[in-house]
Structures are given as C-alpha cells and as structure tokens.
Amino acid sequence: MLEDLNKKAKNVGLHVADAKKKKLYTVRKVKNGKLVAKNVDADEALKIIKKYK
Q: 20: which DSSP letter?
C-alpha cells in the first residue's frame, strides 16, 4: 500500500511514509520536507494527494 501511495504522491511533489502507529501514514512535501498531514489512513492520504494536483 505504501508503494502505491508513494507512486501517486511523487507526481505531485509529496512523499508518504509510515507513521509510528500501524496502518497510518505521514505526508510531507518533497521540496522542503514540511509536514502536510500526520497519522492519516490510506483513504485520507489519497484525498490529500488528489487535493495537491
């Protein structure tokens, strides 16, 4: 799941990583590393990626 999210996020300049909690992710900007979202599930991460397009 993480690989799929990263492929989609890479196109819009974001990076998805595992959070400390299981099945949760953090989203950061690639350019400067600023945090966009923290402790979101896969569905919310997809919504954020679509929003940044």
A: S
Pairing of the two strands 14-18 and 25-29? antiparallel
Please give the model's pTM, rounded to 2 decimal places: 0.89
The rounded distance, in Å, linking the Cα atoms of 33 and 23 is: 21
Number of domains composing the chain: 1
**Which domain covers residue 18, as residue numbers?**
2-51
- The C-alpha atoms of residue 48 and residue 3 are separated, in whole angstroms, by 16
Q: Which pairs with CB-CB distance under 8 Å and at least 24 residues apart come from 39-44?
A: 42/1, 42/5
- What would the pLDDT profile of 3-52 be if each residue is shown by its tens digit? 999 999 999 999 999 999 999 999 999 999 999 999 999 999 999 999 98
